[in-house]
Amino acid sequence: MNGDLLLNIVLVVVFVLVGGVFAATEMALVTLREGQLNALAARGRRGEKVAALARNPNTFLAAVQIGVTVAGFASAAYGASSIAPSVVPLLESWGLESGLASTVATLLLTLMIAYLSLVLGELAPKRLAIQRNAGFAYGVAPVLNGFANLMRPVIWLLSASTNVVVRLLAATRTRPARR
């Protein structure tokens, strides 16, 4: 395995883990109970920020979705495009034609990255965050808050777009006839 391939694999894992931090942060914040929020707020300024963020799900959910989505797309796109070419020669040595080997390599890597993303980027982080929601939220929510502030224009655009779609769908919904 050459250094470039190893670096590409490490970068894919990093993208997956970044997505996992966002997913875990979401789970930690949504599972905090009011008593936990009050206890966090009593710990000082940082705890107050965590409690305020948890009480404003519109902001943190949008920020989390941006983080999870971008990290997921980055891991899949980067992984498939940077690692697949290294797998193609192996598949060709097994008798696959070059074009088919390239397609199979991309498909296999996409499936492997999807598996990693589900285990390391979603399921395990969320389960750990549920078990230690207050501590996890206290540790990472300020970073999410900073990210949310940085993404404020994007969050505004997403919220406005979502509101339009919801209004359109609600307006086109058929209403039951009165009897």
Automatic annotation (TrEMBL):
Assigned keywords, A-Z: Membrane, Transmembrane, Transmembrane helix
Name of the featured protein: CNNM transmembrane domain-containing protein
TM stretches of this protein: 6-24, 59-80, 100-120, 132-148
InterPro entries for the chain: CNNM, UPF0053_domain
Species, as recorded: Clavibacter michiganensis subsp. michiganensis
PANTHER family xref list: HLYC_CORC FAMILY TRANSPORTER, UPF0053 PROTEIN YRKA
UniProt-listed PROSITE patterns: CNNM
Record Pfam families: CNNM
Chain ranges of the CNNM transmembrane domain: 1-179
Gene Ontology CC annotation, any one: membrane
